[in-house]
Specification:
Elements (H helix, E strand, L loop, with lengths): L2 E6 L7 H14 L4 E6 L1 H4 L6 H17 L8 E4 L5 H10 L4 H5 L2 H7 L9 H15 L5 E3 L5 H18 L7 E3 L34 H9 L17 H14 L3 H7 L5 H27 L3 H28 L4
Parallel strand pairs: 1-2, 2-3, 4-5
Helix pairs in contact: 3-12, 4-7, 4-13, 7-8, 9-12, 10-12
Bound molecules: tryptophanyl-5'AMP.
Length: 328
């Protein structure tokens, strides 16, 4: 069975974008892959995070993974910080990556834009090499992510290939898996920008644990054009296309069929239908989340997951250290 690996940072509230671009893919693919899904908490501290908030979001993320349908019987779910081999390999990869490569990372450029050099951590800069370690430590074949992470997976491939050339075949070269329709869910108020948990305008972003009625209101207030036709055309009709994507992904109805179903509807009717689907999705998800977060399930799953993750990672780091000359 081929291996799948992916992770999410426990910073900010998880959004509908995180669900549709990433978690839904993990859930849909888990039966066909040996899956490793982790909480990327080491990545979370590349920017300052309040300790209590980080702890809460870490547990919440695991509960949300489970509430969304990750099956801990078959999928290994773990905390990155509990597996020291990530940072061990991260350092080795940092020493096999170039400043020029990291300078080209658009996420770093975006996140450090308009900030002084004294406000940008070195961790934020070298974070893609830790992400590369997260992936190749497990010889992952596939990495499902949203489009914003594609460049990091490409860098991972380059570093892995370079290492293999220098030190002999060691790592599998991973493939990014990017959903064609949900690779980027857009902000509801500014549909040319990614829906993001750090977005300043909360009206544009739906978070997974927010009040379903409030979320429905945000859909009703989403910015659209004035053409009043339910047609998927991301270039010319980004707002309505984003809503079609959300509706299609949550109901598993293909985009063409959504267009057909609403061909005689106006935007008000369509928005109402999308709002209902989103609010029902959140209601169901939150009921499951409540059940899990108030049980011992989160610790049970993490205790089990870390054992398997460590075992695989330990063997890989041993091999790497031997190849590089970091043993006696
Ligand atoms: P993060 O935590 O920013 O995002 C988690 C996942 O959600 C996707 N995503 C979206 N997809 C569609 N539309 C959106 N609006 C949207 N917003 C977020 C992201 O593309 C991502 O797949 N560096 C990673 C975490 C990470 C990782 C890894 C991922 C660390 N190590 C190894 C894969 C493999 C990150 O910051 O994602």
């Amino acid at each position: 069975m081929k291996r799948l690996l992916s992770g999410i940072k426990p910073t900010g509230e998880l959004t509908l974008g995180n669900y549709l671009g990433a978690i839904k893919q993990f859930v849909d693919m888990q039966k066909d892959y040996e899956s490793f899904i982790f909480v990327a908490n080491l990545h979370a501290i590349t920017v300052y995070n309040d300790k209590e908030e980080l702890l809460k979001r870490t547990r919440d993320l695991v509960a949300i993974y489970l509430a969304c349908g990750l099956d801990a019987e078959n999928t290994t779910i773990f905390l990155q910080s509990e597996n020291n081999y990530h940072t061990n390999l991260g350092w080795v990869l940092e020493c096999n990556a170039y400043v020029g490569e990291l300078n080209r990372m658009t996420q770093f450029k975006d996140k450090s834009k308009n900030k002084s050099e004294n406000a940008i951590t070195c961790g934020l800069y070298t974070y893609p090499t830790l992400m590369a370690a997260d992936i190749i430590l497990y010889d992952a074949d596939v990495v499902p992510v949203g489009i914003d992470q594609k460049q990091h997976v490409e860098l991972t491939r380059n570093i892995a290939e370079r290492f293999n050339k220098r030190y002999g075949q060691t790592f599998k070269i991973p493939e990014p898996i990017i959903s064609e329709i949900t690779q980027k869910i857009y902000d509801l108020q500014n549909p040319t920008k990614k829906m993001s948990k750090t977005e300043e305008n909360p009206k544009g972003c739906i978070t997974l644990l927010e009040n379903p009625a409030a979320a429905a209101k945000k859909i009703m207030g989403a910015v659209t054009d004035s053409d009043n036709k339910i047609k998927y055309d991301p270039e010319n009709k980004p707002g309505i296309s984003n809503l079609i994507t959300i509706y299609s992904a949550l109901t598993n109805v293909p985009i063409k069929d959504v267009e057909n179903k609403f061909k005689d509807s106006n935007y008000g009717t369509f928005k109402k239908a999308v709002a209902e689907v989103v609010s029902q999705f959140l209601t169901d998800l939150q009921a499951k989340y409540q059940e899990i977060i108030n049980s011992g399930k989160v610790d049970e799953v993490l205790d089990k997951g870390i054992k398997k993750a460590r075992e695989i990672a330990q063997a890989k780091v041993k091999e790497v250290y031997e190849k590089v000359g970091l043993s006696r």
